[in-house]
Amino acid sequence: MPDHEPDRAPDRARDGRSETEAERRRRRALFLRELTEARELRDRVQPRRAKAARLRHAMRMRTFRW
Description:
The N and C termini lie far apart (40 Å). With 66 residues, this protein is mainly alpha-helical. Helix 2 crosses helix 3. Helices cover 74% and strands 0% of the residues.
């Protein structure tokens, strides 16, 4: 697991300071990296479910009208 700083949102809210746009983007990027990592792990651990999910997604994309 990558080391990352603890969530400081409660402290910031208590102090009345708002987070900067750069901090928000950094937290969002970290969240999306961890989410992708979790999905990849789940796909490796449950290949049958991952295949079914891919097929469902492909079917949805084929039936979607642009």
